Amino acid sequence: MKKNLIIIIAVVISIIAILSVGAFFLFNVSDTYYYTQIDESNMTENEKAGQGGVIDFTGGMKYLYTLTCYDKNGKEKTFTFGANKNLKNEAFLKLTTRPIQGVVAWEEIQYKDLPDSVREKYKSPENQ
């Protein structure tokens, strides 16, 4: 009886520890920002968008982009993210990312708003 009680307590403590670590990574991790430029050749249409299903790893987004992105120091990383509309070709984006979750938000920005180390990676648009 005493042995079973020790096993139950150990299992409960293990479950609490796993849930705590998971909650930390999902809710208490700071955002990291990456910058990219839309390239329509790296966009695919998600034919199953909005059809539901048990698990939809695309978030139901109609357009999926796989783009090379750069952090504020110019370090390269590739991300795949979705949008409900076709984004303007060659527009610059600031992506908000989190560990495990990936891209959680994006916003269009101007070339002049890119960090210097990122600006070096792209040609300056003529109208800015």
Please, could you describe this protein's structure?
The chain has two domains: 1-29; 31-119, Beta Barrel (OB fold (Dihydrolipoamide Acetyltransferase, E2P)). The protein has 128 residues and is α+β, with helices and mostly antiparallel strands. The chain is 23% helix and 31% strand. It has helices at residues 2-27, 116-119; strands at residues 32-37, 43-45, 63-70, 76-83, 92-98, 102-109. A hairpin with a 5-residue loop joins strand 3 and strand 4. It has a three-stranded antiparallel β-sheet, with no helix packed on it. It has a three-stranded antiparallel β-sheet with strand order 2-3-4, with no helix packed on it.
Please name the defining characteristics of this protein:
single chain, 128 residues, alpha+beta, OB fold (Dihydrolipoamide Acetyltransferase, E2P), three-stranded antiparallel β-sheet, 2 helices, 6 strands
Q: Strand percentage, roughly?
A: 25-35%
Q: Say how many strands there are.
A: 6
What is the second-level CATH architecture of the largest domain?
Beta Barrel
The total count of helices amounts to 2
Q: What's the CATH first level of the largest domain?
A: Mainly Beta
Largest sheet: 3 strands, antiparallel
- The count of domains is 2
On the 0-100 scale, what is the average pLDDT?
A: 85
